[in-house]
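Re: your question from the hallway

Yes, I did run it. Sequences:
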Amino acid sequence: MSSPQSLLDVGTEYQYGFRDEIEYVYRAEKGLSRRVVEMISHMKGEPDWMREFRLRALEIFLKKPMPTWGNTRLLSEINFDEIYYYIKPADKQGRTWDEVPEQIKNTFEKLGIPEAERKFLAGVSAQYESEVVYHSIREDLERQGVIFMDMDSGLREYPDLVRRWFGKVIPPADNKFAALNSAVWSGGSFIYVPPGVHVEIPLQAYFRINAENMGQFERTLIIADEGSKVHYIEGCTAPIYSTDSLHSAVVELVALKGAHIRYTTVQNWSKNVYNLVTKRAVAYEDATVEWVDGNLGSKLTMKYPSVYMVGKGARGDILSVAFAGPGQHQDAGAKVIHAAPYTTSTVVSKSISKGGGRTTYRGLVQVDEGAVGVKCNVRCDALLLDEFSRSDTYPTMNVKEDDVRIEHEATVSKVGEEQLFYLMSRGLSEQEATTMIINGFFEPFAKELPLEYAVELNRLIALEMEGSVG
Amino acid sequence: MSHPLLEIRDLHVAVDGKPILKGVNLTINRGEIHALMGRNGSGKSTLAATLMGHPRYEVTRGEVLFEGQNLLEMEVDERARAGVFLAFQYPVAIPGVSVANFLRSALKSLREEEMSAREFRNALKEEFKALHMPDSFASRYVNEGFSGGEKKRLEIVQMGMIKPKLAILDETDSGLDIDGVRIVSENVNRIAGQDTGVLLITHYQRILRYIRPHFVHVMVGGRIIRSGDESLAHELEQRGYDWLLQEAGAEEKELQEVG
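Structure:
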């Protein structure tokens, strides 16, 4: 797969590839079985319905074939028997960073999480391997009834709310990896925002895989009640190993009438992580859901955030950017399902491929019968930095109503010789010029991020570009 | 300094294997304004792009010295740092990159000492004002959605910020209305001052009313077939190019001997 040269590149470019030597509190045996699933449920002290849910999901996972689309070659290389499905890193969850085991705390410090928390976050959740090890939320939000905790605690403390929505937006049978997550899920976030409450500054979750051959299966459920508003950001990194890890999350969003959810992802897994994630939102009347999805890392990502607009006037906006370097395939996209009249959606997908990297846009626009007055705009731009790289677009339209306005535009371009010449004629080196063109290409994504993240993104791109031209 | 600013000697250039320039000779000293005139396809823009170092233009013979240094061995950005500036005939758009960000980075690369953020902002403001552009252009993406005239003005804003030793203006007058030509010209004169060498490429005489050249050269078929002073431009305006073309045949031999 990766030539020695590209592995070398990974080592020098990826700055989060360090690993910790940790004594885990508990590590399940390798491989997936009924016993492992039951053990996870038992250790968490779950109610019966959840144990049953997991076991049913396991059956579905075992029965379902692997996807026959996407990068089937890379998918076929996943060895499900070699994966650790559950690793418990610490005895208990910290409410302050001092309660987090020293080494794990240091890791998150290296990643800049406590600092970001102090500066611009309303709440933080930090997951290490299978469990959330640190959790905080600002008191004023807690007083307003905002719930932000790890999914396991959510299940314990708000069983009715969880049971009502859990697995309803994405049932286990949705796809093989959703079934896998449903069977072995651990950690993730549970958020509930009461009616009319606006959480103005972002809540953030950070996911870290440390162990080799680790499988991380966090499960996130966000419920924004009527007229409420919330912005959630997730970031992720992992060490570099010669063997692969698997990250397979399920994220369910519920935006009730007039609610607004924004969900931002800056995915920067190391290049030995499979990132196979199912993300879906339901938007009720006049609700808005925005997915802002950035994929920079991982070996193979397959992820198509969706919005089901089921109430009149609902809105779905999906902004997806991907960067694929050597040995990487970003198979990403968006799905918008207009199941109600006067619903609106925009999809903007931007991808860059370099050094043999591959990007794929896979999208669905669906308009159900009776969903009149629908507006949908899809725009896909792909940028290729060299002739070894590849980009493909697979848009699907499934429109059963006439009274709709749908626009679709797709472009594939190369970093133009003329653009480089222009910038270099003003004194920029080839690398600086290329980086500037790429930053500009990603600008629509960067400007949707909080400033600190945008700066980080630009820095990451500069790192990715180092030594890649000339 | 004893070296001329720019010396072009017997320059031959090909694009995709096809010869375009066939022996250009030209010397520009500091403070001199040279107009290079000629019809479309005569090789004027090829000369401009070659001097700046566009990768598609292959020098097959000859040499170019900039302050005595071999210009042809330098990368595009090295030429910029040496003091060469090209105002593009067709400036390209760089989506997502603001004018301010772009120029800030450019100046960082070009100058030894860094400008403070405030100095930079003020200087940029001044340039916009001089070119009769609102300074909101600073936050717009480079050339994206600009009219033809705005693009040309932005080139001169850049020239004003960069203050090059040699400014090559490739048909900066085309796409500008009559006021635009005047404004751009006044600014070129201001920026160039006494020390900058200017190579002004045009096929119209009108810009030469404002930027008065010390020398006028006429290019035909990839060669300079006639050089003179300002009066040559006037003559061209009155008589067109045809008489020159007819004479060119007769003079070609002679020119080659001189060259």
